[in-house]
Design brief:
The complex is a heterodimer of chains A (about 120) and B (about 110). Chain A has no helices and eleven strands. Chain A has strands at about 5, 10-15, 20-25, 30-35, 45-50, 55, 65-70, 75-80, 90-95, 105, 110-115. Chain B has strands spanning about 10-15, 20-25, 35-40, 45-50, 55, 60-65, 70-75, 85-95, 100, 105-110.
Chain lengths: ~120, ~110
Amino acid sequence: GAGVSQSPRYKVAKRGQDVALRCDPISGHVSLFWYQQALGQGPEFLTYFQNEAQLDKSGLPSDRFFAERPEGSVSTLKIQRTQQEDSAVYLCASSLFGVQGEGEQYFGPGTRLTVT
Amino acid sequence: DAKTTQPTSMDCAEGRAANLPCNHSTISGNEYVYWYRQIHSQGPQYIIHGLKNNETNEMASLIITEDRKSSTLILPHATLRDTAVYYCIVRVDSGAGSYQLTFGKGTKLSVIP
């Protein structure tokens, strides 16, 4: 079946604009994660959903970042009033099980956000 | 949180085994070790994971020391397509039904023809 997909693949925003990044996880996957990857660094955790519940948002860098997964499938990461330091690749991952499982996370290709 | 330490980079000749080390000296007894890799401009790809015992799958083998303070990922016959950044990760269950993977900077493996 299809893997994790993300759209758009590339996004250029002017400083101060709002952006919305979409993630379509693998069908039936319970867990969904968002990560931020700066150039030359490893991915850093942003937030975690189990179905529609956002159980951990400890990695969100500021209150300008907001994520939702209203029906427990598709998720959207929204960044308000973008700043240059928000420029990064935003990765989405899904996993079949919740915290009780050992299952691997399947990653999408990422959205490269450039704030000018 | 358990942290991992990996060499910044390694080279391996094509067709030879690639052995990638990782130190995780502060790992707790119920924390899993995961390995992922990331090929340029792609999302990370799962390779293997383990708790205490050595593990093997179609991609690699994972050797975990008895004290669990270090592990080695083995790619038995490296190919050019294995050139990537390899991340050793200790999965942390952060409570309230959530967990995280903390990636670090990984090891840049270059497979040389």
